[in-house]
Design goal:
Blueprint lengths: L14 H23 L3 H29 L4 H24 L3 H20 L3 H9 L2 H6 L21
Length: 161
Amino acid sequence: MPLFVWTNQLSVGVKLLDNDHKKLMLLINQLHEGLIKGSSKPALERVFDDLVSYTRVHHAHEEQLFIETGYKGSAAHILEHDSTVDRAVELQMRFNNSEGLGAELEVVRHLREWLFRHIHGSDQDFVSHFKAKKIDAILATRNTLDGREPAKVPRVMQGAW
């Protein structure tokens, strides 16, 4: 059973951000499952690398939407993002230096609590703002978040992933 299960109560009502949250949840679950199954430490560290990296991607998505919609609470939220990345890196170092399953599972539980607080806490501050600006409708008209055309993928690579 996964550590973290998506429910509609976790939705912030913005498809892009919900998908980001689902991806973060998936990575936390992969880390947890890897620990339970006894995956190698290097494999688990790669999952944690992906988690920290995707946390930055998610924050960049939110910050881009703040700019586009003129969200007045953006400065405080961006400071929280900086703090969150610092905390994720700190947890990553604790995880990488841990020498026991108990300590590693504790780090994963902290990650789960962080994401839950992020979704139910500070993200709720801008949900009504984004909905009022009809951000999902705006994003649905684009190929990319910033509105630019996506880079062309060589035809040979198109089915590779």
